[in-house]
């Protein structure tokens, strides 16, 4: 009865997170419906245990009752099963197995935030339901993920020491401290986890993380596509260029892995591996949820949405093949200067990335009002500096911007990012012009530029739009010379066209 934490679900993520906890001195009681998975984690623990003469740090349980009997109270149980109904099925089985009101069930899956809000309320009388989203894939779970917790504030005090121990760590400059050696976890450094708020707050933040992840990935793909199509670069050359970019402001995990991917060759054919992979993108849905949530709240998150659509368009492989033979592009393919274009694309990627993060943070700003949360945006930027898929050096600058002004309405308005956009936007404009002239699809670059120009526009053509609405539907409009909120309607067809006055 002396285990600190229980696990239901010992698949890849559950297994790795359990081993991570064991490395940090916590005793784990694990259960899975598949006995092989239990055995697998026990075998791995035995091989990795620093001193084989000491007792096992993870025990396998034959049932949920057995697991509960082995946990100290209040019991903390991590659930790592597929999002959706399996989470509720586990919660109900745990209730039947004897869960008590003070016990804490932590959903570490990629659950939709609305489910977490519902579950927290639904299970209130039976136990404390808590959400913690995990980013970083299997390596992250094993050696230090970014953890995004949200739920009952009292339960956080039980989870905090464990979550801070197992999460990724960054040094005083915000750089990840990495050790991927079993039994030798990173102890020092600032943990990439922070309590984000009640009920669905953590899962919402993770969803936005994934929306940004979609945008980040798509923008890198567009940069690659431009370099290849405009300059005729081979994947390996682009990989080397990305390695160089990774030394500067674009330093990030996604640029790093893209550089590596582009330099790999297929074992079978010897061709660049990227050329062997079918150009049809999958998605599990978190980017789509982000786009839907933005649309529902009226937040402009076009880059994220375009990145979701780009994946959708890519899946129309048969149709695209036919369209390629049917639809002719009337394009100009002028001379381009390689070095200049390279620089423009690098700057374009940086500017578009800033805009995508600005949209993500703007979205969370709207969500905190909608759901009555109180986000600390510098904390969110900080916990994304290490462990997660969108980890990037510039997150330190985002954290600094929100420390300087916690009420910052849009990241683009911080001095640092306003200056970055001022000095590098020419690259984004050039990349978009070249893409348009050459017929290369770069929807997220286009969307980023449109967002930037739209956001900084003092006057937009929405005046004409309001007039159109009033014309056909009497929807009314406000006047620039009247009190805000005062509504006007013109009888467009009956009143005739008055003369222009001076
Ligand atoms: C992470 C990832 C992870 C997963 C994505 C993939 O933060 O570790 O986001 O959660 O890889 O959900 O999503 P798609 O299948 O939708 O690309």
UniProtKB/TrEMBL annotation:
CDD domains: SIMIBI. The keyword Thylakoid does not apply. Its EC number is 1.1.1.44. Signal peptide: none annotated. It comes from the Bacteria. Keywords: Gluconate utilization, NADP, Oxidoreductase, Pentose shunt. Pathway: Carbohydrate degradation; pentose phosphate pathway; D-ribulose 5-phosphate from D-glucose 6-phosphate (oxidative stage): step 3/3. Substrate binds at residues 110, 135-137, 209-210, 214, 284, 311, 469, 475. Residues 202-493 form the 6-phosphogluconate dehydrogenase C-terminal domain. One of its GO terms (biological process) is D-gluconate metabolic process. Belongs to the 6-phosphogluconate dehydrogenase family. Homodimer. This is 6-phosphogluconate dehydrogenase, decarboxylating. The lineage of its organism: Bacteria, Pseudomonadati, Pseudomonadota, Gammaproteobacteria, Oceanospirillales.
């Amino acid at each position: 009865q002396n285990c600190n934490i229980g696990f239901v679900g010992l698949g890849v993520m559950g297994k790795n997170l359990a081993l991570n906890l064991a490395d940090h001195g916590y005793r784990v009681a694990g259960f899975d419906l598949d006995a092989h998975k239990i055995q697998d984690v026990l075998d791995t623990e035995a091989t990795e245990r620093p001193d084989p003469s000491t007792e096992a740090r993870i025990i396998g349980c034959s049932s949920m009752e057995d697991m509960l009997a082995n946990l100290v109270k209040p019991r903390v149980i991590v659930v790592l099963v597929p999002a959706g109904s399996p989470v509720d099925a586990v919660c109900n089985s745990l209730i039947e197995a004897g869960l008590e009101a003070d016990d804490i069930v932590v959903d570490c899956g990629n659950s939709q935030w609305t489910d977490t809000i519902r579950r927290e309320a639904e299970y209130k009388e039976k136990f404390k339901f808590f959400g913690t989203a995990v980013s970083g894939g299997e390596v992250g779970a094993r050696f230090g993920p970014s953890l995004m917790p949200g739920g009952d504030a009292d339960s956080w005090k039980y989870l905090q020491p464990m979550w801070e121990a197992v999460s990724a760590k960054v040094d005083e400059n915000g750089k990840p401290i990495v050790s991927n050696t079993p039994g030798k976890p990173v102890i020092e450094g600032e943990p990439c986890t922070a309590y984000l708020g009640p009920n669905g707050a953590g899962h919402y933040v993770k969803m936005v993380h994934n929306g940004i992840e979609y945008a980040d990935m798509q923008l890198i793909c567009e940069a690659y596509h431009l370099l290849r199509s405009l300059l005729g670069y081979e994947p390996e050359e682009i990989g080397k260029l990305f390695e160089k970019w990774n030394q500067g402001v674009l330093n990030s995990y996604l640029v790093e892995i893209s550089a590596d991917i582009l330099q790999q060759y297929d074992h079978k054919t010897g061709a660049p591996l990227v050329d062997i992979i079918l150009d049809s993108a999958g998605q599990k849905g978190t980017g789509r949820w982000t786009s839907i949530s933005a649309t529902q709240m009226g937040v402009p998150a076009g880059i994220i949405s375009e990145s979701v659509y780009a994946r959708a368009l890519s899946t129309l492989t048969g149709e695209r093949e036919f369209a390629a033979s049917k639809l002719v592009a009337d394009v100009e393919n002028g001379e381009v200067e390689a070095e200049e274009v390279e620089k423009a694309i690098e700057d374009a990627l940086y500017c578009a990335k800033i805009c995508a993060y600005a949209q993500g943070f703007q979205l969370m700003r709207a969500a905190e009002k909608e759901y009555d949360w109180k986000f600390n945006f510098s904390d969110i930027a900080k916990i994304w500096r290490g462990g997660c898929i969108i980890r990037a050096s510039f997150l330190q600058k985002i954290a600094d911007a929100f420390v300087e002004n916690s009420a910052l309405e849009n990241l683009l308005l911080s001095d640092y990012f306003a200056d970055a956009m001022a000095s590098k936007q020419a690259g984004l404009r050039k990349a978009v012009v070249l893409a348009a002239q050459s017929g290369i699809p770069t929807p997220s670059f286009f969307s980023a530029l449109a967002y930037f120009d739209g956001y900084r526009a003092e006057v937009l053509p929405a005046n004409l739009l309001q007039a159109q609405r009033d014309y056909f539907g009497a929807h009314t409009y406000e006047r620039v010379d009247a009190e805000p909120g005062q509504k006007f309607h013109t009888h467009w067809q009956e009143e005739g066209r008055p003369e222009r006055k001076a």
